[in-house]
Amino acid sequence: MIDPENIETVYPLSAAQNGLLFESLTQGQGDAGRIQVVIEGEGDLSFDLAKQAWGAVVEAQPALRSSFRWRKMKKPQCVVFRVMDWESNVSVLDSLEGASVNGSDPLVSLMAEEKDLSLELDAVPTWRWTLIRKSQSRFAILWTCHHALLDGWSGAIIISQWFKEVNRILRGDASELKGYGEPFRAMIRRSKNRDLTQFGDYWRRLLQDNIEMPYLASRERAQKSGGDRAHERLVLSRELSARLQGSLARLRISGNILAVGAWAIGLQRWCRRLKVVTGTIVPGRTAHVESVDEVAGMFTAFIPVVINNVRTDAFADWFSDLKKQMIEGQLRAPGTIGELETWTGMTDISDSMSSLVMFESFPTVKGEAGNEAVSVTKFRSSATSRSPLLLGVLPGENWELACDYDTARFNQRDIRQLLRLFESSLREIAEENVASLSFVRQRLHDLEVPELETPSRTVLDKRRKGGLCESVEKELDSVRWRVLKVFRSALGREELGLKDNFFDWSGDSNVAGRVIHEIEREFGVVLPLVTIVECPTPAKLAERLAIGEQSPWLSLAPLKSDGVLPPLYCLHAGGMEVLLYRPLASSMKVPRPVFGVQPPGLKGGEMPDSVTQLARSY
Question: I need a labelling partner for 434 at 20 to 30 A (CA). Which of 49, 338, 425, 541 fits?
């Protein structure tokens, strides 16, 4: 029985908490929602001292005194207790120099054992905490908790407060850790008082024209779920990691915006289209709540990010637009994809939201003076996810790309290719002298990426009523022959096939102009002339048209993108187009990229009437 006098507060669960609780209860003794927080440190840390400091943090943070109630209730609730018997969930494991009896690392062994133990979410407390004494001066702590009560930020907040409390006690400081009950309750009130109607309108406007999203896996695999979880990691070099850290200041963006942008550029290459949608995790903490950066709880939220059109080719401006979208999304963030579907009335979002990317920019776990008797040398937090593909970017001296994925949806080969694309995208962004988005896309275009098992990469909109198209494949087949007819007519070669290269059949800029003009008239699209360079065969151009991908009209047109030497820029001639430079680019044997510079008014709008205006537009 619960003593009513011992209840500090009761609150309804957020959508994210409801989802995590449901997954945990249906998954049983699995790792759904489990978080393992690990710290390693140096100093003579006794079990009594560690436990005393941990008790102070438990008393200060309501989330550590919480558990769930759902049995015989219409809706689950979270109960915060004033006091509780937590000491039975705290233990110590002693070993000498990190070796256990069987010769394995005791921390690694304990982590494996913990994964086989369930977390009782209606127990008090809902976490377990173990001190591992590796030697007289080295220790580790394994803290197992649940994501439904604590987000990733909270792990770092709590460990940082524990660490400071240990050293406060050692110094003989009589001050006490302040309580965070009021900030915690303020965050709960904020989540309950949101205007969900307004949020639904915002996401509906953003997503309604973009729900036809690309699959990351083939169609058959993308509609599966419930496989085993697998993991892949890629460690970046220290030199690249340092340059990426510098890119955050150069582009004036956060790590999460950098990660989402780089991932989106990689997805565009993988899916071979400009319109892509991914998801990300945002902190969910509001600056209007006092001590918001010090209170623990489950406050993070999910937001979709839509990469649809390109206003500019400049990296800084493109990332600025992305930053604006993510800030607006964070203010209206849903807790889960299910909640987003409820808000918008769009029931097909979960079918197409395959990836979730996040930058683990947790608070730094360190002391104030740097000369504490007990110091933390390593901190890491690992959470499980039910997202088909969760990609985490872990900053440090060597950045790490960590991928957790559903084996029913993805195979190892595809995951490794996606990680390679992501790394290549980050590498290009880190180059200080690269300011053009089209240049990076062209560089990624030259990477060898295997085709998916089917040519269809889009999610058919379930809201469509019959008649628009029987299948993407049939539509693509129709487009192929219409494009082939245009190629044959312009080149005067009836024997030309779907995979024949335009330039191998003596195609020049004049003929290319006729091809693009006829394609625009036939399909009602607007294409740059250099599209014929990017898609020189009828098959490639048909695929681009069938999946709705259109290159943005940019002044910088890639004619030859490979090479490490400084690029050659060719200004347009009197005819205002740059395709005439392609023979020059293709005949160059040195590894030098070649770009044509096109006038901005060539595809609509006013033509600059002076060199000064041209220079300004470039």
Answer: 541
Alpha-carbon distance of 410 to 419, in angstroms, equals 13
With tokens 């800030």, the residue in question is 327
| Torsion angle of C-alpha atoms 276, 280, 282, 284, degrees rounded to 10 | 90
pLDDT at position 270 over 70:
yes
Q: Tell whether pTM > 0.70.
A: no
Q: How high does pLDDT run on average in the chain?
A: 78
- b (16+ CB within 10 A) / e for 544-566: bbbbebbbebbbbbbbbbeeeee
Are 538 and 490 spatial neighbours (Cβ–Cβ below 8 Å)?
Answer: no
Report CA 556 to chain centroid distance, whole Å.
28
Q: Which of 121, 106, 140, 130 is nearest to 30 (CA)?
A: 121
Angle between helices 238-251 and 255-271 (to 10 degrees): 110
Which tokens belong to 542?
A: 């048909």
Query: Which are the contacts of 564, defined by CB distance < 8 A and separation ≥ 6?
Result: 591
pLDDT at position 528 is 74
Q: Are strands 276-282 and 355-359 parallel, antiparallel or unpaired?
A: parallel
Helices marked H in 215-348 — which ranges?
219-222, 238-251, 255-271, 315-331, 337-344
Which positions ≥6 away from 252 have C-beta within 8 Å?
A: 316, 320
Locate the DSSP E strands across 479-583: 556-560, 568-571
Edge-first strand order for the sheet with 594-597 is: 556-560, 594-597, 568-571
Contact in structure between 388 and 405 (CB atoms under 8 Å): yes
Q: Do residues 304 and 340 lie in contact, with contact meaning Cβ atoms separated by under 8 Å? A: yes
Q: DSSP assignment of 395-443, as one string?
A: -SSS-EEEEEEETTT--HHHHHHHHHHHHHHHHHHT-TT--BHHHHHHH
Q: Which two tokens stand for residue 29?
A: 């003794």
Question: What CA–CA distance (Å, rounded) separates 326 from 109?
Answer: 40
> CA 563 to CA 44: how far, in whole Å?
56
CA–CA separation, 374 and 137 (whole Å): 9
CA 473 to chain centre: 30
Least confident of 305-319, 469-483, 520-534, 572-586: 469-483
3-state percent helix, strand, coil for the chain, nearest multiple of 5: 40, 20, 40
DSSP secondary structure letter of residue 275 = -
What amino acid occupies position 593? P
In whole angstroms, what separates CA 206 from the centre of its chain?
A: 18
Environment class of 605 (CB within 10 Å of its CB; exposed 0-12, middle 13-18, buried 19+) = exposed
pLDDT reading at 467 higher than 50: no
DSSP state letters, 7-59:
EEEEEEPPHHHHHHHHHHHHH-SS-TTEEEEEEEEES---HHHHHHHHHHHHH
- Residues forming a β-bridge with 79: 10, 67
| Distance, CA of 597 to CA of 470 (rounded, Å) | 41
H or E element, residue 234: strand 229-235
610 contacts: CB under 8 Å, gap ≥ 6: none
The answer to whether the CB of 582 falls within 8 A of the CB of 504 is: no
pLDDT at 470 over 50: no
- What 3-state DSSP class applies to 377? strand
Strand-pair category, 66-69 with 77-81: antiparallel
